[in-house]
Q: What sequence folds into this?
């Protein structure tokens, strides 16, 4: 089998040519990643990405013309299996939450270290939601507010202590490998938690699981 078939295909959408060039070079140096394309605006991305769908898209927010959040929303409709990782300078809550509502599954700042960014690409491809601890805390604080005054006890009561610990770490933005280390369990056990938690909460994604856990 061609080894390239097992590589994670990455597309970049950013209007800054220097940033696109740097990101492309970073991806080309990673043995398990492959550059699927890079685009300077949302309109070009909307036309070209569906022709050669990647596994992960690195998306800027502040683009000329259509912004990155709307681009994610439209691409996610036609390419639901593609994972979107926002890579931006914006730290405000509106940009963060609007990105996740549009379908993004990760949110990092452009000053993120290269090693951390590569890990985040692999994490979002594996089903994670990479964020900086600061942004993850902001999401947790927002989601921890009970909806309509209802307590989340009913949902929490259905989970074992281990499953609650797992979800606490998940809500704080930790990758599955990091959760395994912090809980002193194997990665296979983490995957088992994923399956059982998703089944108990009747959800199909990490974000939905965290929302339902924290809101009840």
A:
């Amino acid at each position: 089998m061609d080894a390239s078939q097992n590589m994670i295909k990455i597309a970049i959408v950013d209007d800054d040519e220097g940033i696109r060039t740097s990101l492309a070079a970073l991806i080309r140096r990673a043995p398990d990643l492959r550059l699927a394309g890079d685009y300077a605006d949302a309109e070009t991305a909307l036309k070209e990405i569906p022709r050669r769908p990647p596994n992960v898209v690195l998306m800027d927010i502040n683009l000329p013309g259509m912004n990155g959040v709307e681009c994610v929303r439209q691409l996610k409709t036609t390419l639901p299996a593609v994972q979107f990782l926002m890579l931006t300078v914006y730290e405000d809550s509106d940009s963060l939450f609007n990105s996740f509502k549009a379908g993004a599954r990760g949110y990092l700042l452009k000053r993120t270290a290269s090693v951390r960014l590569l890990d985040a690409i692999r994490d979002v491809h594996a089903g994670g939601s990479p964020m900086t601890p600061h942004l993850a805390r902001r999401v947790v604080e927002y989601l921890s507010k009970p909806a309509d005054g209802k307590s989340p006890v009913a949902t929490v009561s259905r989970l074992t202590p281990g499953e609650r610990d797992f979800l606490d770490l998940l809500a704080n933005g930790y990758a599955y490998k990091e959760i395994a280390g912090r809980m002193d369990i194997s990665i296979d056990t983490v995957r088992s938690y994923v399956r059982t938690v998703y089944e108990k909460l009747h959800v199909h994604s990490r974000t939905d699981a965290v929302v339902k856990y924290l809101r009840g």
Observations:
- The mean pLDDT is 84.
- The beta strands are 8-13, 33-39, 56-59, 83-88, 106-109.
- The radius of gyration is 18 Å.
- The first strand starts at residue 8 and ends at 13.
